[in-house]
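Quick one, probably user error.
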């Protein structure tokens, strides 16, 4: 077994006139062969041989298969040739060798077609078909990031070094180096495709993985934005600012349903009897601009209990409506789209609600913060009471409609400030209230889970409500919410003393 560099080539003519080429690692060997061919060509009146230097230089890896036959394969770099040789040596010794020629006729594009068909029919796990939205995500990664580099690449030539180089230098759709998240996701998908090739017995091992199954070239994924967990009072403030969709916001923040699940609910999914609950069995997903109704993300139906504070509003909402009517339709009576709802209603609501305390402080000309967020504390209370007393307002120390209007009537504030103050007139603020980071809609799901965990430590119950596969998923996703218990556990040890 060994590796050699092929720097020189001799092109010569066969008796049929067809041009052939032999490649060599040294110029001397190439010219020696060319000299023999020159005499032959002159005697047979054929075209004279030509010696050329290869560009780019090529590397050849040679080894013996289990039958003792000598096999060779060529690569663009020495690293790739060395990696291939190590892989083949390992599989020959382990008895798992598969002739690379079995993959020579299959390209990455061919493999992708087979793999995607499996994903559509039985999914990656082989248990159920992937959802249309999941398939769309796979197709996007392939068409934008995998196909441009690997499209007609033979599977037999894919190496660990080659996959690492592609992952580390991958270009995004804008031509610049792709983000670490994008590179990690595309590389993971490519590795899954190669795993499938191993299962098809086209490849002996996955060339995207090292000897222990690792991929140390994959960049660390960014955990993304930090989740926002609203308190019960903050959730009510956000719902109030959402206007006609306030019940939708409150409902989601108290049940933890995903956007696609809550917008797929119909009146018949509610049971508002003695033990009220909502049945969750379907969800909308947006695929190629179309809303597709399918299974939930967890592929399983569940029942989520409803707090009594929601029941009265829901009874009024569904009165007189047929069982198949959407619970939260758009203004046209159709399923809502996340982008439209966010732009028109949710974005203005979250910005109005999340900055309420700082809006009061700006109008009063003061600043009081806690952990970087405006807080209604002693400083704000003192300035507010003084302002309310000067204006002859009642209910000193709390902020309601009269105070908002009085703040808006002050001179020296901009028209934009005045408009925001007037739009805040329905918000009530009390001592101790704080601003919060503007939550995205999915943060309402996080809020519901955090509120449930604050009133029950039974992770199994919360797992069922959230629709997680198991309690481990719940703990891993929301482990930070158990920090208080972490320290209480140590403090509780002292209670064991006699």
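Nope, works fine. Designed sequence:
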């Amino acid at each position: 077994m060994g590796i050699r560099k092929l720097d020189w080539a001799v092109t010569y003519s066969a008796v049929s006139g067809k041009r052939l080429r032999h490649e060599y690692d040294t110029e001397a060997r190439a010219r020696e062969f060319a000299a023999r061919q020159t005499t032959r060509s002159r005697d047979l009146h054929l075209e004279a041989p030509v010696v050329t230097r290869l560009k780019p230089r090529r590397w050849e890896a040679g080894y013996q298969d289990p039958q003792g036959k000598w096999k060779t394969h060529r690569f663009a770099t020495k690293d790739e040739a060395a990696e291939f040789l190590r892989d083949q040596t390992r599989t020959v010794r382990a008895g798992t060798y598969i002739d690379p020629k079995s993959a020579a006729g299959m390209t990455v594009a061919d493999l992708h077609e087979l793999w995607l068909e499996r994903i559509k029919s039985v999914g990656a796990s082989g248990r159920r078909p992937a959802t249309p939205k999941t398939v769309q995500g796979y197709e996007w990664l392939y068409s934008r990031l995998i196909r441009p580099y690997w499209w007609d690449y033979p599977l037999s030539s894919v190496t660990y070094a080659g996959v690492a180089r592609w992952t580390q230098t991958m270009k995004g759709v804008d031509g610049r180096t792709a983000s670490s998240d994008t590179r990690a996701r595309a590389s993971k998908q490519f590795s899954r495709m190669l795993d499938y090739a191993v299962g098809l017995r086209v490849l002996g091992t996955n060339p995207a993985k090292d000897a222990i199954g690792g991929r140390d070239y994959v960049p660390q994924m960014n955990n993304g934005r930090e989740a926002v967990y609203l308190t019960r009072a903050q959730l009510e403030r956000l719902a109030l600012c959402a206007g006609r969709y306030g019940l939708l916001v409150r409902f989601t923040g108290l049940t933890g349903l995903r956007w696609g699940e809550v917008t797929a609910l119909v009146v018949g999914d509610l049971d508002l009897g003695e033990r009220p609950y909502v049945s969750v069995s379907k969800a909308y997903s947006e695929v190629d601009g179309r809303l597709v109704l399918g299974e939930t993300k967890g592929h399983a139906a569940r029942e989520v209990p409803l707090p009594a504070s929601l029941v009265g509003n829901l009874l009024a909402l569904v009165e007189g409506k047929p069982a198949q009517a959407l619970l939260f339709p758009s203004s046209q009576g159709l399923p809502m789209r996340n982008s439209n709802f966010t732009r028109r209603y949710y974005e203005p609501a979250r910005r109005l609600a999340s900055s309420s305390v700082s809006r009061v402080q700006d109008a009063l000309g003061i600043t009081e913060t806690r952990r970087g967020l405006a807080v209604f504390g002693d400083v704000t209370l003192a300035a507010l009471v003084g302002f309310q007393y000067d204006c002859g307002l009642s209910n000193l120390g709390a902020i309601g409609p009269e105070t908002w209007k009085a703040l808006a009537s002050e001179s020296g504030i901009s028209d934009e400030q005045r408009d925001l103050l007037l739009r805040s007139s329905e918000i009530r603020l009390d001592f101790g209230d704080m601003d919060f980071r503007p939550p995205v809609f999915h943060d309402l799901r996080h809020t519901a889970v955090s509120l449930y965990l604050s009133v029950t430590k039974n992770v199994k119950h919360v797992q069922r409500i959230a629709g997680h596969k198991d309690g481990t998923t719940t703990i891993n996703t929301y482990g930070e919410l158990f920090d208080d218990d972490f320290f209480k556990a140590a403090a509780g040890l002292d209670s064991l003393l006699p």
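Residues 232-336 form a domain with the hpI Integrase; Chain A fold (CATH 1.10.443.10).
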